[in-house]
Every structure is written in C-alpha cells, then in structure tokens.
Amino acid sequence: MAILTQYNDAFANSKPLSKNAMEIYVDALSDIPAEVVAGAMKKIALTARFFPTVAEIRDVAESLVRHGNGTTLPTPDEAWEEAFRLAKSYPVADEWPFSCQEIRDAVKQFGGKLAFYDIQAGGESVARAQFQRTYNSVISRSRENRINNAVLGADEIKKRLGEAYKKLIG
Length: 170
Description:
By secondary structure, the protein is mainly α. Helices cover 71% and strands 0% of the residues.
C-alpha cells in the first residue's frame, strides 16, 4: 500500500520502517480496504506524533468504519443505561430492542434479563460495575474474534489448522 510509504515519510519523529517491516504492515492490513487504511492514516497523522503500529491502524480503521455506518459501540456507561432502561420498560418475556449485539451478549452473560429484576435496592452500583466489566469482556472478545478472522481469513489456512487440531487430539 503506497499510502503507508507516504505516511512513513511524514512522521518526522519516527524512524522510517524497513522494507521488511513495511511488507509486514501491508500483509497485516491486507484485509482492510485501501481507502479505509488511507482514512485511518490521515486521522492518525492528525492526532499522533509517531508512526502507528498495525494494531493502532486497525483500531482507527474500525472506528472510522463504525462511525461511517452508524454502528459506533456504546460506552460501558451507555450500555448499562440501555440495559437498565430496557429492564424497566419491557417485561422479561418480551424481546428487548438492543441497539447492538454486544449489549445483548453482555446482558446474557450478566445472568440474562432476570438479573436486572433481581437487583436489590442500594445494590445498583455493584451491579453496574459487574455489568460494565462483563460488557468490556464482550467487547474484548468481539475484537479478538475480528482479529482472528482477519488472520484466519483464508479458507486454506482454516482447513490446515483444522487438520492440525484433529491430529493433536487424535
């Protein structure tokens, strides 16, 4: 990706990446459309002093895509407020209209919808902290899964790993 070379030269405070490092960057970002990487690099150039890591580029690229398509993830506080509001507004048997899958998953891991009805008076702050930890865990796992899918994106690699696993467990 030529965009990486251009920005590599633009970060005066960073040592230029070697050809080998640049190849690693290109490979690690190959599943992201070039125009998204370009947008991420532009945002990073406006906010950072040093050339970013692959992980930083991926995070900014994801943030831009989510922002662009209106799927920005709620903060842990926003997720708690949504789940708590839904518990007050809907019977447990009804389908709750979650704004995203991550909140739905966090509610399920928190103990399901019933867990919100079991919160005792005065225990809301403890429940809130527990839910936010659960939500952060769901977000981390979701991010980990996206990275794993990017790494294992090729069907041939998945097939080889499956065969290797079968050999291991014999």
